[in-house]
Write a structure and sequence with these properties.
This protein is mostly beta strands and 148 residues long. The chain has two domains: 60 residues, SH3 Domains (SH3 type barrels), CATH 2.30.30.40; 62 residues, SH3 type barrels, CATH 2.30.30. It has a five-stranded antiparallel sheet. The longest helix is centred in the first third of the chain and has 20 residues. About 11% of the residues have low confidence.
């Protein structure tokens, strides 16, 4: 009975924390994404700090990742981290608020546009407190973001 319980706990731990391990965030000001795991491969996109990705695989010092649109790329491992969560705007335009709700005013750096990326500071209900690469802080509705 103890072995079954222990195995169940280990499996639950793996399932719970495997999702967190597969999230990556760009930690440098600008990063190139490529079609393969080497600088000789074609650049497919360049992204800015805090862009989130789903980690799919690793080959040498490169990660195969998936972006908000479901496209797959390769990124050099030293350009990303899993130490914090990131979010990217997944719609054309969103308001950035001074607090967690539409009753709060818009920040002066609002609106954000599709593919703007942020570090997630905290969530409160259906709202996410974020910071951008310029240290601007605000709140965005969770349903308008892709957080991985």
């Amino acid at each position: 009975m103890k072995k079954t319980l222990l195995c169940g706990l280990v499996l639950a731990f793996i399932l719970i924390f495997s999702g967190y391990a597969s999230a990556l965030c760009v930690k440098v000001p600008l990063a190139n994404l490529r079609s393969g795991p080497d600088t000789k491969h074609e650049k497919t996109w360049h992204v800015f700090k805090y862009m989130p990705f789903k980690k799919l695989a690793k080959k040498n010092s490169w990660y195969k990742v998936q972006d908000v649109d479901g496209d797959e790329h390769w990124i050099f491992s030293k350009l990303v981290t899993s130490k914090f969560n990131c979010a990217v705007v997944k719609v054309d335009k969103v308001n950035i608020r001074s607090g967690p709700g539409t009753n709060f005013g818009k920040e002066e750096f609002s609106p954000a546009i599709k593919y703007d990326s942020y570090k997630v500071l905290k969530t409160q209900g259906l709202w996410v407190k974020v910071v951008d690469e310029f240290d601007n802080i605000g709140w965005i509705s969770r349903k308008l973001l892709w957080i991985y």
